[in-house]
Amino acid sequence: MNGFVVGCWAPKIPDFAERLGLSKFELGLMIIVFGVGSLVMMPIAGAQIAKHGSRVVVRATAVCVLPLLLALTLAPNVITAAVSLFLFGGFIGAMDVAMNANAVSVEKSMRRAIMSSCHAFWSLGGLIGSGLGGIVIAKLGILGHAQLATVLAAIFLAVAWPMILADPPHPDAKKEKTRLPMVPLPWLLGLMALFSMVPEGAVLDWGALYLRQEMDASVALSGLGFAAFSATMATMRFAGDLVRDRLGGVKTLRICTLFAIVGMLLAGLAPDAEIAILGFALCGIGISNMVPIAFSAAGNIPGLKPGIGISVVTTMGYSGMLVAPSLIGFVAEHIGFAIVFMALPVLLLFVLAFSKLAHYADGVSGGGH
């Protein structure tokens, strides 16, 4: 549901900008408002999970997400649009933290990895939402699309509602003050998630523009960059848990990071659009399981509540996807996207350097190593 709603928002952005008369710079500021909403609400979600358990927070935030596509479609002016976008980013982000915390609880109860599959369903939702968006907008109009998307999201939520695992907090958890962790481990895992998600944000927001402007690709072909990235990412996430149970978190993370580095370099050095799309596809294979492993590890840090560890890692990780794209756009305006894509693997070398921390993700299998 969460991925689907985000996917539905993507094709609405051009109309949103046109209706409110926003320039590219102003639209960039609006996208930052979405990011700020997420960054404000994610730590709050972590604190609420520690107090009430993740099921309560998942349900509450999911209900709050439901009307926001309609609010964004009907916003009459820039102020109401900015408020709607702040709430949209906030509740999407808070729901994300709660879902990941709940997935860690499910992993512990099942004693096997399921995080990658959960992220695969998010990718699948995003793929369906963005893939159908243009067609539905053409047929039903921008309001009809928002109404249909809201109804479908409500159906997804209704199906999931009774199945969400109850994870009550410890009786003493309510009395404790929720503080930011003072140990370095969640912050290092947060940096790993951040550096894994910056390339993802770069492909999401700028891949099509790179193919169009610097590779002279057609409109149809330029759309395939993100589609190839999403398709390989969703596929590999469905396979990721099996691979991780077999190889362990550390080896899986190292192999994935190498795939992402090769994919990014290939996209940046590509002589034509087809080779660049192949690079994005390889990058999708790599990034697919890097973030789920970081989240699983964050939920299994000894002596730290899962909700707190995950909120730190999620907040840092998603800030990479939310803040970095506007920075990348500014840099690329001066030096071109090709050089940016070639430079991004430097961030992935950090993930490789600290890949040993992924052994915490294996705590869910009962092995611990």
UniProtKB/TrEMBL annotation:
<protein>
    <submittedName>
        <fullName>Transporter, permease protein</fullName>
    </submittedName>
</protein>
<feature type="transmembrane region" description="Helical">
    <location>
        <begin position="148"/>
        <end position="166"/>
    </location>
</feature>
<dbReference type="GO" id="GO:0016020">
    <property type="term" value="C:membrane"/>
</dbReference>
<dbReference type="GO" id="GO:0022857">
    <property type="term" value="F:transmembrane transporter activity"/>
</dbReference>
<feature type="transmembrane region" description="Helical">
    <location>
        <begin position="307"/>
        <end position="328"/>
    </location>
</feature>
<keyword id="KW-1133">Transmembrane helix</keyword>
<feature type="transmembrane region" description="Helical">
    <location>
        <begin position="56"/>
        <end position="75"/>
    </location>
</feature>
<keyword id="KW-0812">Transmembrane</keyword>
<feature type="transmembrane region" description="Helical">
    <location>
        <begin position="217"/>
        <end position="240"/>
    </location>
</feature>
<dbReference type="InterPro" id="IPR051788">
    <property type="entry name" value="MFS_Transporter"/>
</dbReference>
<feature type="transmembrane region" description="Helical">
    <location>
        <begin position="275"/>
        <end position="295"/>
    </location>
</feature>
<feature type="domain" description="Major facilitator superfamily (MFS) profile">
    <location>
        <begin position="1"/>
        <end position="361"/>
    </location>
</feature>
<feature type="transmembrane region" description="Helical">
    <location>
        <begin position="81"/>
        <end position="99"/>
    </location>
</feature>
<feature type="transmembrane region" description="Helical">
    <location>
        <begin position="27"/>
        <end position="44"/>
    </location>
</feature>
<dbReference type="Pfam" id="PF07690">
    <property type="entry name" value="MFS_1"/>
</dbReference>
<feature type="transmembrane region" description="Helical">
    <location>
        <begin position="187"/>
        <end position="211"/>
    </location>
</feature>
<dbReference type="InterPro" id="IPR020846">
    <property type="entry name" value="MFS_dom"/>
</dbReference>
<feature type="transmembrane region" description="Helical">
    <location>
        <begin position="334"/>
        <end position="354"/>
    </location>
</feature>
<feature type="transmembrane region" description="Helical">
    <location>
        <begin position="120"/>
        <end position="142"/>
    </location>
</feature>
<keyword id="KW-0472">Membrane</keyword>
<feature type="transmembrane region" description="Helical">
    <location>
        <begin position="252"/>
        <end position="269"/>
    </location>
</feature>
<dbReference type="InterPro" id="IPR011701">
    <property type="entry name" value="MFS"/>
</dbReference>
<dbReference type="InterPro" id="IPR036259">
    <property type="entry name" value="MFS_trans_sf"/>
</dbReference>
